[in-house]
Structure formats: C-alpha cells, structure tokens
Amino acid sequence: MNKVLIIGAGGVGNVVAHKCAMVPEVFGEITLASRTVSKCEAIAADVKMRTGREIATAQVDADNVAETAELIRRTGARLLINVALPYQDLTLMEACLEAGCDYLDTANYEPKDVAKFEYSWQWNLQERFLSAGRSALLGSGFDPGVTNVFTAWALKHHFDEIHTLDIIDVNGGNHGHAFATNFNPEINIREVTAECRHWENGTFVETSPMSLHQSFTCPEEVGTYEIYRMYHEELESLVKHIPTLRRAQFWMSFSPNYLKHLEVLQNVGMTRIDPVIYQGQEIIPLQFLKAVLPNPGDLGERTKGRTCIGNVITGVKDGQPKAVYIYNICDHEKCFEEVGSQAISYTTGVPAMIGAKQMLEGSWRKDGVWNMEQHDPDAFMADLNAHGLPWTCVELTPDQAAAFQVA
Ligand code: NDP
C-alpha cells in the first residue's frame, strides 16, 4: 500500500489532501503535516466528512531536515508532496535523500532573503538523486505544471517543431475584498513585482514589471481581461527542454483595482523583504503585510467566477505552419462545493495529486530530478479530464495566433 506524506496545510494542501483521499487505490495511507498542526486536523476532519477516509496528521518544521527525515521514516512514506512554501524546497529534498523517499513540489526554490526564484539549486541535486535512486518531480501545479504538460502534449501530437509559446493565466474570479491575493501573499507579491523576462531568439530579455499588456477574450464567455506580460518559472525549464522555441512569454490578468493597491503598497515600502526596525523589533514589511491581508485559504467561500489558463502554441507540422490553444476553465464555486477551496488552490492541488499518481504508478518514476515536460504527457492529460480539470484544444487561424506575437 502506497504511503504518502503531504507537507503544508494551506489552500493547496487542503485540495491535495482531499483529492488524494478520493483515489484510495493509489494513495493508500496519507499523512498531512505542517507547522500548525491544528490546520492539518481541521483539513483531516473535512476529508473524513466528505470522503469517509481517515488521514493522519503531524506537526513538522519543514526548515529542519533531521526533523522532517524522522517524520518520513515514522510514516514510512514513499513520496513526499511539498505544498508548503518555495523556501522549504531544498530542506525537504535533503530530508527525502536522507530518509529514502521520492519528492514532488509545485513551485521552485526561492531564498527567503532574496526575491529570486530559479531551478538551478534544485537541478544541482540531479546527481545526488540519481545515485540515491530517488525521483523528484518539480513544479506539478497548474503553472508551472499543467502548462508544461500542455506544451509537451502539443509537441507530441500536433507539431514537428514548436516555435512560439504564450501561456495565458486569467482569473476571472471576484472575492469581494478590496485587496487580497489568491495564494500565499508573500510569494504572489514577490512574483508580480519582479522584473519581466521573456525568451526571445535564444536569450531572456528583461523589461520593467507590468510594462506590456493587452486585452484577451477567453473562450466560453469567461470574459475579456487585460493580461500583463511577466516572468514565470516554467519558462526557464521549457526553453531548456524545447530548444526550438524562438519566443516564450507568460501573461497574467490583473484588475485595475489589484494593480492600484499593489502600486500604493510598493510606493510606501510595504512590499520590501529587507528587515526594518519597528519599536525595537526587526520586521519584514512584506511578512507583516501578509499578516493583515485576508488568508487566501478563506477566500473560497466568497469567490465567484471562473479561471481560464492555457497555452497558445505555434510551430510547424508536416512543413505547414500550425497554431493551437489548449486551455482549462475552472469554476471557483464548484471547487468550493467539492473540496472547500477556491479555484486557484484547486488548479494547483489537483495537478499535484495527478503528478504524485503518475510517480506512484511508476510511469513518471525515474531516478533523478525532472521537470514536467520531460515525462510522457498522455496519462497526465487523461487524468486531468478524470479528476476535475478538463481541457480543450482548438486549432487557431494564423490571424488569431498572430494576436499574441507581441514584440
Ligand atoms: P499557504 O501559505 O496557504 O500555505 C502554506 C502552508 O505551508 C501553511 O500551512 C504553512 O504553515 C506551511 N508552512 C510554511 N512554512 C512551513 C515550515 N517551515 N514547516 C512546515 N510547514 C510550513 O500557501 P498555498 O497553499 O497558497 O501555496 C502552497 C504552495 O503552492 C506554495 O509553494 C505556492 O508557491 C505554490 N503554488 C503553486 C502554484 C502553481 O500553479 N504551480 C499556484 C499557487 C501556489 P502555517 O499555516 O503554520 O503558516
């Protein structure tokens, strides 16, 4: 019987726990651990109510390798699903190596004191995972995650060569708060205030944050939104593993209201991550801001509307130019009804469960450290349809595809 250890009991951890519990033939014994054990217990009670399954809970400090390794041994876990924060990626990978366990996460490592995220630290563990006979799957959320698999699937079934990729992440949801972030505010604000980078003819080109935007009309009447070009971590692995890519860009929708609040918060220094002294005590403004903002895990109850995340891909097939758009639409209220979380947590947690399923079933379990697009996409794509994130692929006309070729 497969034993798994989920670490992190936030919005995403809640979804992963529920979705794993719904697939008992793969996830035989589940332990949910986090820093605050009461959050694990609340999730476990909800899982029991909705699915009838018991899951174990535990307290752990994921920054502490020895403590986490001990928990892995105690639970007998074969796979650790990391849905804590990107700060914990390296300590959790170390703990897996120490205790003999496979590893999966949904976001790449980021040091606490530098707003910089990249794969290098985790890719550097390749030799150690190989020689230990352990497998790690990086970035098994939606973006990164499903967007990587969409690209791999398009390459396998629709193209001989991919030339351009535009990942478009629209959240058409409304939570009714003046300002809130849909996932961990600290990570979210670090991401959207970073310099923009996109791939252009063999190199990353840097531009000012949010300096390029355009209007995008989602399919299935999700609506028309302003999308902003920004850097996103899957670009780094995709351009490495798909060398024919000439341009790769990532776009995300933001409402004027979100951007107005963010600008003010930045201007007054509330998004800083260096310590300031307040009444004799060191505080990090961004961490303080997180404490006063709504908890993303609590947004589900009041969020209405849908998300629409997908890839516009162009390239050639049999010598002819071709373009496709592959997307998923997810309804916030339906997610809340199913697992008690909004769609941002749902669209991250479901692919984490599906990635874990591929590893436990063996098809994605290869020694070493892997990104999503390096595995065969077909079973993962089928599981998206089976477990709550159905997708659609449409062919685009050259004119439609050209709308995204923004210089
Ligand atoms: P939350 O902040 O809601 O939850 C994080 C959880 O991790 C909390 O339960 C927190 O505990 C726990 N945690 C933090 N530090 C430690 C520690 N040292 N030891 C043990 N537990 C710890 O975040 P989300 O659920 O919104 O996001 C989870 C992950 O998913 C993040 O890495 C995020 O970047 C990623 N993500 C990925 C996406 C994708 O599409 N790929 C999209 C959205 C998110 P406590 O409650 O005590 O603070």
From TrEMBL:
Q: Does this entry carry the keyword Lyase?
A: no
Q: Where are the transmembrane segments?
A: none
Where is each Saccharopine dehydrogenase-like C-terminal domain found?
Answer: 141-389
Per the record, the domain of life is Bacteria
Q: Which keywords annotate this record?
A: Oxidoreductase
Which InterPro entries is this protein grouped with? NAD(P)-bd_dom_sf, Sacchrp_dh-like_C, Sacchrp_dh_NADP-bd
Which parts of the sequence belong to the Saccharopine dehydrogenase NADP binding domain?
Answer: 4-136
Q: What's its EC?
A: 1.5.1.7
Q: Which GO terms describe its molecular function?
A: saccharopine dehydrogenase (NAD+, L-lysine-forming) activity
Please identify the protein, giving its name as recorded: Saccharopine dehydrogenase (NAD+, L-lysine-forming)
